[in-house]
Amino acid sequence: MTATREISEMFVEQVRAAGLPNPERACAPALNGESGDALRFDYAWSDRKVAVQIGHESEKRHERATRYVAEEQGWRICLFTDGMVKCGAAIVTVIAALAEGEVKDG
């Protein structure tokens, strides 16, 4: 499930208001050296290996398995409900995840 247009636009506005770099949209990272077609993040900062999925009230088994592989390869995947974007919890989490990535890299 992907973010609705309204929630997606709200998240992008929150990213801009927080002064964060623009994320990649519909990012499909290569996992285990293979095409990323099996996994597509709604938003991602590939340089920090931080990804966002919005509208995830539930997750299918194959999505969990692919997410596990991504996490094993160092990705931090943030799963948010629409409500988490609306109340600001999502952007607070993303800011912390990106800051954590900077500490690890720098």
Write the layout of secondary structure elements.
Elements: H1 5-17, E1 24-27, E2 41-45, E3 50-54, H2 61-72, E4 76-80, H3 82-87, H4 89-105
Parallel strand pairs: 3-4
Antiparallel strand pairs: 1-2, 2-3
Protein name: DUF559 domain-containing protein
Organism: Paraburkholderia agricolaris
Characteristics of this structure?
106 residues; alpha+beta; DUF559 domain-containing protein
Write down the CATH class: Alpha Beta
The CATH homologous superfamily corresponds to VSR Endonuclease
Helix content: 40-55%
Shape: globular
Overall pLDDT metric: 84
Organism: Paraburkholderia agricolaris
Protein name: DUF559 domain-containing protein
